[in-house]
Amino acid sequence: MKAVILAAGRGTRMKQLTREAPKPMLPVRGKPILEWILEGLLDAGIREFFIVTKYRAEVVREHFGDGGRWDARIAYGTQGDLPGTAKAVEPAREFVGTEPFLLSYGDILARPAPYASMVERFSQGRFGGLITVTRGEEIAKGGLVLFNDNFLMSDLLEKPSPEEVAALQRQGRLRKEGPFWYNAGIYIFDPALFDYIADVRPSPRGEYELTDAIRAMAAGGLPIAGLEILGRWADVRDPEVLARLEQDEI
To answer: Which domains are assigned to the chain?
Structure first.
């Protein structure tokens, strides 16, 4: 299986920390976030990578080169002018080809084990995709994922408001006691994803959201399997998270 990693954004919440490099290249315990991701994927047996860059792309390319230092093959693409995570994936279409691929945001840190678990789970059925989730995160800062009894995704809400959560609970779609599944930002997709991305329209905040494409896949009859990430997981969203990771075991 191949892997695509999205590393195009600057990471404005990091403020001056990303003046010289994109957020995925910020160091954690002496190593860029992106390198931790790459090594975790290598541990799962993945050897072919496509890194999507834009802001300070040269920093990423100079560090990783062609991947030979890791006995891997790394190709690169540049996100175009249209904003959003859906458009960030588009440059990888030719690289992906006709086989399923793993997709990760470039600022998500997890231990290596979940990557192999994802590949195993995806192989257990005829799925259009797989979405990882974690619990204990504040869903208003990310995505709330709803599942049916077979742990297949039934819906995905980006940064739901308290009113939206309450409505889901009244409808019986979300239990008041939880669990509240937070989108962990690591996926596996059938290449059909690119067809759904092409139909995505700008969200209210003016961005082309990957989550809209995922919802459309599920609505179109392509099952999206769920997998809970166990163990350490971090969305490196701001300097506070970065500082905590410096003190934690990776």
So the answer is: 2-247 (3.90.550.10)
Q: Is the pTM of this model over 0.85?
A: yes
| Model pLDDT, residue 175 | 86
Question: What confidence tens digit (pLDDT) does each residue in 176-224 have?
Answer: 888 899 999 999 999 999 999 999 999 888 899 999 999 999 999 999 9
> Can you name the residues that pair with 109 across neighbouring β-strands?
234
